[in-house]
Amino acid sequence: MQRFQSYINGEFLDGEARFQSIDPATGDVWADMPEAREADVDNAVNAAERALYEGPWARLTATQRGKLLYKLADLVAANAQKLAELETRDTGKIIRETSAQIAYVADYYRYYAGIADKIEGSYLPIDKPDMDVWLRREPIGVVAMVVPWNSQLFLSAVKIGPALAAGCTMVVKASEDGPAPLLEFARLVHEAGFPAGVVNILTGFGPSCGAALARHPKVAHVAFTGGPETARHIVRNSAENLASTSLELGGKSPFIVFADADFESAANAQVAGIFAATGQSCVAGSRLIVERSVKDAFLSILKRKAEAIRIGAPLDMATEVGPLATKRQQDHVAALVEKSVGSGARLVVGGERPAGNGYYFPPTILDCDGVASPSLTEEFFGPVLSVVSFETEAEALKLANDTRYGLASGVFTQNLTRAHRLMKGIRAGVVWVNTYRAVSPIAPFGGFGLSGHGREGGIAAALDYTRTKTIWLRTSDDPIPDPFVMR
Ligand code: NAD
Prior knowledge:
- This protein has 487 residues and is α/β, with parallel strands linked by helices.
- The protein has helices at residues 38-53, 62-78, 80-91, 95-115, 152-166, 180-192, 206-214, 228-241, 263-275, 295-308, 327-342, 393-400, 416-425, 458-463; strands spanning 2-3, 6-8, 11-13, 17-23, 28-35, 122-124, 131-139, 142-146, 169-174, 199-203, 219-225, 244-248, 254-257, 287-291, 346-349, 364-367, 384-390, 410-412, 432-433, 452-453, 466-474.
- Helix 13 (416-425) links the parallel strand 18 (410-412) and strand 19 (432-433).
């Protein structure tokens, strides 16, 4: 059995307790993990605070920080295949996807390496003749990062990269469901030469480890990705330490197809949007909103594509849909499909949990026209698409915005003016037009409403890990006049 360690203050440690990790493709235990509880969390946060104010990190120039980030990027690229295999083994996400995604994660670190010495303060044109006033941009402080199981190296890179560029130190909590890739990534942080305590990586359970981290008095900011219910705990805990928060949460993203769309392309994008990563993607285009006149034609293309998907072992390069990450997730998806069918939704394809030990669930399409199906409002985080149809553009927009989430959206049409109207009208943090699920380190990403707040990616994300300090310098040698008058 493979054994992993946590990384605290530059040391690899066994953790306060241990737990076992399950291979979702077989349901068998495959690895032994370190479980951090309050004491490990406390040690890690204290190490991060020392590194922030006392250690060599605080004395590095921004350019030197950038060089360390470039080194880390190169190490991620060189180890992408190994990290991908670990992620696939521990979470069931197919190797085809993890290997491509982790190779791209290196580019995120490279992007933020370049940003490190471009974070500038400013000089203010102050309204007093004898004063020079500047804004310094300083690291926000010790950052707690809490991530879910899916795409952990990616979801942590969009936090670690900008936070390091800004000069922060951090404690990263890997998900207890599949922590292997992040714990292994800690070895690359070490090899890159980051001083002890700058990046601490541990794992443990939400209530004992995540909560202790989020409410720790020395934490200045919590960067969280996960579900809205957990986000509420994080925000409640931030009432204790008054840490700021950024929240990347779930979605129920609309995917709108008009009659003039290129069907082949739209269908491929819809397959990518809902069945890739076995639907365990925050941006899953889980609500297909299709023009009524082409609904049957479009659904028959989708059905054919869904039936042709190769379901199999996640470590096999030919597999297109692997297992869900956990039994809990498989049970949730199966129960929500059953509840939706019970409410009148009609199964177009899939819907039956297969026999066997792995946590598989087949690509599933539910026709929900005329039905108040829970599948239209609740997040599956699984390979289940709900379909409704519309007559007019106004109706399509109304359906698209009929959600408390607002993470992503897709619009497929050849009509340019209509595309522009929808870009403005859709209430979501991302609108993809004639494409879906495209990401880049250069483009900010984040949600509206229940999908959270704060943006990851882009230059602004690095600025979000800074706080300003205002410096006043009096340039006059004259004595300070009347001390009772504020000037
Ligand atoms: P989750 O909210 O259950 O867990 C996420 C993390 O929070 C885990 O590390 C967990 O241990 C930790 N946690 C749990 N309870 C906690 C507590 N009380 N205090 C602090 N931390 C706690 O999410 P999940 O089920 O692992 O992941 C699926 C969810 O993540 C979905 O809703 C999905 O949409 C969302 N997600 C969002 C994005 C995005 O970028 N917007 C990306 C991926 C996933």
